[in-house]
Structures are given as C-alpha cells and as structure tokens.
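Lab notebook, bench 4. Still working through the backlog of constructs that have no structural model yet. Next entry is a single chain of 110 residues. Request: give me the structure tokens for it.
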Amino acid sequence: MAERAKALEPLRLEVLAGLATLDHRIEGCQLRDADVLLTLETTDGGVRVADLQVAAAGAATAEATGIAPSPLDEHAVRCVRRALEQASFKASSAVAGRQWQLAWRPGSRP
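Model written out:
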C-alpha cells in the first residue's frame, strides 16, 4: 500500500493545486459552511469534475447525532454547480480512465 501511495503522490499534489485554482470560480456563490463531494475523472494530462454534490458542513456528524446542520442556500448550491460543472485542470501525471470521489471544502488548504 505504501508503494501505491508513493506512486500517486505526484497526482495528489497536482489535484490539490488544481482544486485551489477552482476556488476563484465559486467566490461569488456565497457558499458558506458546506462540503462539496466531487466526482473527478482523469484524462490524459488532466482532471475534470464529472459530477458534484453539495452538503452542509458536518452533515455526516449531524446524521449520526440527530442534530440538524444549518440548511444550505439553494441559490448558492446552483451557483456552485454551474461554476464547477465540467471544470478541469492540468495534471501532467494523470492517465485517462480513472474516477474517484473527493470531499472538498472550498477555500480550505491542506
């Protein structure tokens, strides 16, 4: 497993850098306290957003505890969807044909 993680490290770093470039796309959306679940697909030399879901921050914890999270602004959710739908960024180590999901909090830094 350590070998696989080491092999994927360049792609992981490129994905983190690519996600940072997407922040500006949603600045005007007024999305607060939300997590975005991205479905990412690799292309040769890049990564694109294939799908996304937006959930209130802490929604999983809220489900487990029974305490409801703050509701999301539907206008902000639609704005984020439009801004990120089919967005892509370069990732030179990406090989076409892989897909995975990644939880992302816009504006956060690892």
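Notes after review: The helical segments are 2-22, 59-65, 74-84. The beta strands are 34-43, 46-56, 88-90, 99-104. Flag for follow-up if needed.
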